[in-house]
Design brief:
The chain has helices at residues 3-12, 29-44, 54-61, 63-69, 80-100, 105-112, 117-130, 140-146; strands at residues 133-137, 155-159. By secondary structure, the chain is mainly α.
Length: 181
């Protein structure tokens, strides 16, 4: 499909966005090195393919990067509904950490509902950075220390300086007000 065909198709189907076109540069050491660094950054920020969206990139990498990756959505803000969900999930994470010393995605989704999994993936990196937390795979020693009874070795979200002694922040203005969005 050419750009002209994409424009024609958008007009015909009354679409506001065009089909996006990407070019893949030829592989050289410089490109591979930059891709590797970007992949490591994504991993450090706990970004996953399941959560990929403009919102995830905006929360974890900032507006400039979100606009670069999603140029047709530059003026789009995070919907109020997503902000409320993010606040609720953040509060759950911090409540679990304050209660038990850790949280798992499974625990959070048990209370929030499985349908919030994508939202959790989008905000997790931001919450971890904001509250100086870490996400680590539990081993035998950590399971004993945190009294984790579930089978296997889950990833746990916990304070960088376990044990944790902090309370979550205040509710942002307007976040809990009902508004259609």
């Amino acid at each position: 499909m050419t750009l002209a065909e994409a424009i024609r198709q958008a007009k015909t189907k009354n679409q506001k966005n065009l089909t996006s076109f990407y070019s893949i540069p030829s592989y050289c050491w410089d490109i591979i090195e930059r891709a590797e660094k970007r992949a490591m950054t994504w991993k450090e920020k706990h970004c996953t393919m399941k959560g990929i969206s403009r919102e995830m990139i905006l929360r974890n990498f900032g507006e400039e990067e979100a606009n670069r990756v999603y140029p047709q959505m530059q003026t789009k803000k995070i919907p109020r509904k997503n902000e409320r969900t993010a606040f609720y999930l953040e509060k759950l994470i911090l409540d679990f950490i304050n209660e038990k010393g850790y949280a798992t995605e499974k625990d959070i989704l048990k209370l929030a509902g499985k349908e919030k999994e994508v939202n959790l993936k989008r905000i997790l990196g931001e919450v971890i950075e904001k509250y100086n937390l870490k996400k680590v795979r539990a081993n035998k020693k950590l399971k004993r220390k945190l009294f984790i009874k579930e089978k296997g070795y889950p990833y746990v979200i916990m304070s960088q300086n376990y044990p944790l002694d902090f309370k979550y922040g205040e509710i942002p203005d307007g976040i809990l007000e009902d508004e259609e969005n």
